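Take a protein:
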Amino acid sequence: MGDNNEQEAADLDAMNNDGDNLFEVIYRGGRLSNSTIYNIPANVFIRLRIDLSVTKIDAYACQYFVKLTEVIFHGNVTEIGRDAFDGCSNLECVELPEGLLRLDDWAFGYCTSLNGEIVIPASVQSIGDNAFGWCKSVQRVIFAPRTTSIELGHHMFSSCTNLRSVTFPQNLRSIPRRCFGGCTSLINIRIPLSVEVIEIDAFSGSGIQSIVLLENVHQIHWDAFRDCLFLKKVTFHSTTLNFANNIFSNCPSLTIIMIAPWLWPKLFASMNRQPDFIIKFFQQYHTKIFAFNEWWVNRNVHQEDNEE
């Protein structure tokens, strides 16, 4: 979470009682705090409608504003600043606008009631660190299929414990550091062919049970799958992989690794601090070499199944 910064109070163009203990506020900039609207009863919450004049939601604009339950954007908003909605623990509904270019660090961090589906518009070019970190009720994330270029921050969905489904853009180059760390409900995920790098702790502590890494993946960083307690099977299609240390540290359920035979020594070397892993797979090593030839012949079939 970011630090509080001094900022002028929010410019609220109008306030309307929308019934059902919900007030609608038209926001025109500045900072909205829990004390800004002091006449609202304790059991009444806020729907924030962004005025058409606003093109950027300033940093810390609504940080920790616990009365906020919904934000309605429009197409003129191109940037959501650092910590803009960080800690809005009752925020349930957000529809990001087409035309949005940038989501800064912690933009929606700790929005623990944000639920359902998050759609990242195709216009978005960058998403900062922890942009949706600890959003524990989010279930699905979809990157719009027309996305052409996007930079993803570290810890972007870290500890989103209810996240079950992610649809990536097809030109993604890397899975960022701890992007899905602690996503315990994320059982399966489809990595695009474009991905080349799996970064540090990318899936550590997640619920992943099986994963296929396609032929363009050439680098897997430290602890990428650390503490994946339910990971059973990993398939590598690349033949030129580089492994950092302990990528499968504390993966007790892992029993099947499909990999080019000449990469086994490199994988064992990277796991030199995990003797149980080495013993477990070295005992199966020769069997896997023989079985590999049949798998390699049919690898295109596996790849086609993954892409369907």
